[in-house]
Amino acid sequence: MNFRIIRALAEKDIEDALHNPINIYGALIISFIFAILIPVLITQTPSFDPNFTGQEAFDEIEALIPPPLVSLIDTLTPEALFIVIILGYLIAPLFLVIPLMISCIIASEAFVGEKERKTLEPLLYTPATDTELFLGKIAAAMIPGIVYTWMNFLIFALIVNIAGLPIMGSFWFPTMNWIVMMIFLVPVISLLGVSVTIIISTRVKTFMEAYQATGILVLLVVGLMIAQSVGLLFLSPGVTVLVSLVVLVVDALLIKIGIKIFSRSEQITRV
Amino acid sequence: MTTIIQADNLHKSFPTTTAIDHLSFEVLEGEVFGLLGPNGSGKTTLVRLLNGVLTPTSGRAYVFGKDVTTDGSWIRARTGVLTETPSLYERLTAKKNLSFFGRFYGIPDAEIPKRTDEMLSLMHLSDRADEPVGGFSKGMKQRLAIARALMHDPPILFLDEPTSGLDPESSRQVEDIIQELASDEQKTIFLCTHNLSQAERLCSKVAMLNTGKILAQGSIQELSRRLFSAIPVEMEFLHEPSPAVIQAVRNTKGATVDSVEGTTILFHVTDKELIPSIIRAVIQEGGDLFRIAPQDYSLEEIYFTVQRQGGMTV
Fold this sequence. Notes:
The structure holds two protein chains of two kinds. By secondary structure, chain A is mainly alpha-helical. Chain A has helices at residues 3-18, 21-48, 54-62, 72-75, 78-90, 97-116, 120-124, 130-168, 176-201, 207-214, 218-229, 237-261, 264-268. Chain A has 13 helices and no strands. The radius of gyration of chain A is 21 Å and the shape is elongated. The mean pLDDT of chain A is 83. In chain B, the strands form three sheets. Chain B has a six-stranded mixed sheet with strand order 6-7-8-3-9-10, with helices on both faces. By secondary structure, chain B is of the alpha/beta class. Chain B has two domains: 3-224, Rossmann fold (3-Layer(aba) Sandwich), CATH 3.40.50; 230-294, Malonyl-CoA ACP transacylase, ACP-binding (Alpha-Beta Plaits). The interface between A and B is medium-sized, with 27 and 31 residues.
């Protein structure tokens, strides 16, 4: 295995993606919504609403409190409870949209965009093995998704703590479930985005088609959010690790299919 | 000379078509080997097979003695391929395009900038090195693609329609580069083209391909000799030749006079060895010989004759 080739390909794909303004603007909009707008709105809601009373806050979020967190009711003020429940727990799965979107965008560029722009053929004539090409492209799509999510997570954490300080009285974020989600779930979700894109890449001709088709994965995140909101599933640290393992198994199966699809002789007939 | 490429009964078929039909040929070291044929004749498929990018359905092919089926990566490290379209990363600069491929071919990081500069200079692109390739003309992109194929200094180059879509000036520049690579750097060149005049200028040997079959192969002179039984000759005198001079040509066994036009006799011979004796005979008869020119058949004449006949004994 030649890691220099894998690294060269990953760096090139990332650099190529960074030269596309659509990708940059898309990422910045995601950051603004998820890492800035949401925490600012949630932390400031109790202060902005003059009619927001402790009782109202409690009534509003009562139905949303997952059973494992009921004990928090006795330890926090209703305003603080509102922030902790929404930002600490309910919003968490929504953050998975970031690794999913970034990995799907770059994977679409790397696997379909390269065919669309007819730049794949010279790569197939290099000494790189099929596995090296495949791993280079997976790394190119996965790593930026993970790193960008972590960067957004840091900004999110800073804003949650600073903007919420008057109500919370101390820096309380991140919670353990967020940390576990960042370490375990974000990488496997990112890989899921890549592996689904590889499968889709055989059926579509353009980068946009591929990216639009992978949009269906957002339903997964929405599903997790709904499941958590209605009390079907609570993403505690243990459950998050379990969900990560399930996604990892799905990833492994999809990657196995992807390796078959990405054989040189298959790819060359499609350029 | 060493055999660099050898194909034995090489065959490639796809579910609905046969792309390469039991081909056998060899390319020697230092040759400019032209693979001629119309679009869809199998030229690109053959390049893919010889680089181990496609697997043959049956038969064998060897490059530097290595089997293309099992040693593709080893072979590709020693070949440079110019694909039919330049296929460059248009958002990246010329320098970035080359350095990226340099890393793929195992050039040490410290040497890549020097090699990149050398290649850009060779292709007369140094002044555009740091510009994104998207703004380059077709000819510049093609030269950059050749530079990419040469980055790792491969001993053999596969060039697939290298002047396709280029204006005459850019085409000539690319042809000059190919000629320099063959003569100055002794590269073995496998040139796929349907441009017959280009092949005639550049190739030392050609193979004519159609629907996956080789119809004929050899040097232009060999093909001409095997295809046509007579060599046309044009003989020019200072003054109109006398009947005795014309008769001297007619009397030579194996020579047939076609016409006499002013100071010129046009005739053909079955063997070029006859020409010196004809010269001696006309001078003996007092002919003031000014110029004699055996006429070669053009590659175009050979090509269309072969296509019309549906091939010849290869």
